[in-house]
Specification:
The chain is mainly alpha-helical. The protein has a domain of about 45 residues.
Length: about 80
């Protein structure tokens, strides 16, 4: 996403005040809705695998953010949800 690579501060206002990863949250909610709508076992398995993949990437991103922002990110992480 062009324009977001060079952000030099931690975003903690607006939607980010409560959700650290609103895009990942949206993806997981979309997948859950898709599973409920389709109601197929294969869809459930694929959705579960996709959700696990999203959580894996979130973990990698959190490690990077901790290394970049240190204690400021750890405090933000304690004050926010997912």
């Amino acid at each position: 996403m062009k324009g977001l690579e060079n952000i030099d501060h931690l975003m903690t206002t607006g939607l980010y005040a409560k959700l650290r990863h609103p895009m990942y949250t949206g993806f997981i909610l979309w997948i859950a809705g898709w599973i409920i709508r389709c109601g197929a076992a294969v869809g459930g398995i694929i959705g579960l695998l996709a959700s696990v993949d999203i959580l894996y990437w979130r973990g990698l991103e959190e490690c990077r953010l901790i290394s970049v922002y240190g204690d400021a990110y750890l405090k933000y992480r304690q004050a926010s949800w997912f």
